[in-house]
Every structure is written in C-alpha cells, then in structure tokens.
Amino acid sequence: MVELSPSILSANFSNVIGDIQKIKSKNLKMLHLDVMDGIFVNNISFGFKMIEDLRKNCDYFFDTHLMIHEPLRYIERFKEAGSDLITIHVESTKEVSKTIDAINSLNIKSGITLRPSTNLNEVYKYLDKVDLVLVMSVEPGFGGQGFIEESHDRIKKLRKYIDENNLKTKIEVDGGIKSHNVSKIVEDGADIIVSGSDIFSKDDINKQIETYYDIFKNYK
Questions:
Q1: For the segment 102-137, what is each residue's pLDDT rounded down to a tens digit?
Q2: Within a 10 A sphere around the Cβ of 164, how many other Cβ atoms?
Q3: Is position 34 annotated as part of the catalytic site?
Q4: 203 an active-site residue?
Q5: Contacts of the segment 212-217: beta carbons below 8 A, 24+ positions apart
Q6: pTM summary value
Q7: Per-residue pLDDT tens for 40-79?
Q8: Which percentage of the chain shows pLDDT scores above 90?
Q9: d(CA 11, CA 199)
Q10: How much of the chain exceeds pLDDT 70, in percent?
Q11: Pick the catalytic residue: 34, 37, 131, 191?
C-alpha cells in the first residue's frame, strides 16, 4: 500500500510535538524531516537537536531529507539523532557514491534525490544502491509551493526504469501535493507521498491523514 510521510516543515514550530501528538492514525508509519543549511538551499530549517527531541517523543520512522552541502560530514550525526532513512541530493556533493555507502554502512536506509531541473540520468546509476528515490515536484527549500506538472513524466520514467531492472527502490514524491491531486501521482507510480501544508494547516490533522489513506486504498 502507498505510504504517507507528513512533512513537519509545515508543522507549528512552537509546538511540533503537540502537532504530532494530534495524529491518531493507525495507518501512519513515518514522518518527513526536511533539513536545510542555508547554503545548498536558501533556507534554514532545523538540525540534530530537533530530530533528537522528536525521537524521544515518538516512534515514527524518520524519513530525513538532507538539503545540505557536503552531507557526508554529518551522516553519522543524523543517524545518532534518530534518522531511519537519509536522502541526499546528487547536486550536493561530488562524493555521491561514498556518501550513499556511508549511509548504508550504518544499517539505516538510504535515498537519492535531485532538483526538478536536473536530468533523471543523474540518479539512474545509484538506484541499485539506495532504498528510495525522491522526486522533487517543487524547487527544494521552501514549503507551500505548487506542484510542477512535468513531475508526472519524471515519476513515470523512474517507475518504468525500476520495474524493467527489477529493482526494489521505492519512489517518493514531495512538493505541492494535496488530497485533490494525489491520485494521479500515485497512478504515475509513487510509493510514498510527502505532504506538509495540506496536512498541518488543517484544524483536524488526523482527519486529513485519513483522507489520504482512504484515497490510497484504491491503489495496492
């Protein structure tokens, strides 16, 4: 079944734990953590301390997306903080393979991603080494952006490549996803959906999560 990974970037940062504790869904297994350093992208979000504090207060699978320069320097720290999966950008380092190997050596899951403007050819060679490929359907760095329609074609191409090469790599999609457009994204071949503002902006966060899972039931 398709999974949902709510992005806490859209949560109320004065009460992140409070927002997370509102979630009562038995379906939800993971949270998406967007880490930005103000160098690789023009925004700064949070780091190790936030992840450590979240880890002490919940047992969700932590799906950590690093939008930082030279992530190899910090892989062990993010694992120690509580990350269960670490996704890096192909554009963030010249040592992509080495960084993926470092993540895999820690017995956690690894992911690769790229900017919407970067050619998909840049990630194909890593798909047999990672557990997940993340399709950014907005420019990385800020929440609340609109879905880039060309992302549909990128998802389909990745789905075709993964299936034809008998890979187990999951496809995650992040950016501009709402309950009204998620069906087409899942039909394209997505396995994991990241949504932030469409979940944490709602008065009833739990009800909105269940809305997504009701949609996912149509896709096995």
A1: 999 999 999 999 999 999 999 999 999 999 999 999
A2: 8
A3: yes
A4: no
A5: 212/4, 212/179, 212/182, 213/4, 213/25, 213/27, 213/28, 215/179, 215/182, 215/183, 215/186, 216/1, 216/2, 216/3, 216/4, 216/186, 217/1
A6: 0.96
A7: 999 999 999 999 999 999 999 999 999 999 999 999 999 9
A8: 87
A9: 9
A10: 99
A11: 34
Tokens at residue 45, please? 């979000």
User: Catalytic one among 37, 63, 131, 174?
Assistant: 174
The three state secondary structure string of the chain is CCEEEEEHHHCCCCCHHHHHHCCCCCCCCEEEEEEEECCCCCCECCCHHHHHHHHHHCCCEEEEEEECCCHHHHHHHHHHHCCCEEEEEHHHCCCHHHHHHHHHHCCCEEEEEECCCCCCHHHHCCCCCCCEEEEECCCCCCCCCCCCCCHHHHHHHHHHHHHHCCCCCEEEEECCCCCCCHHHHHHHCCCEEEECHHHHCCCCHHHHHHHHHHHHCCCC
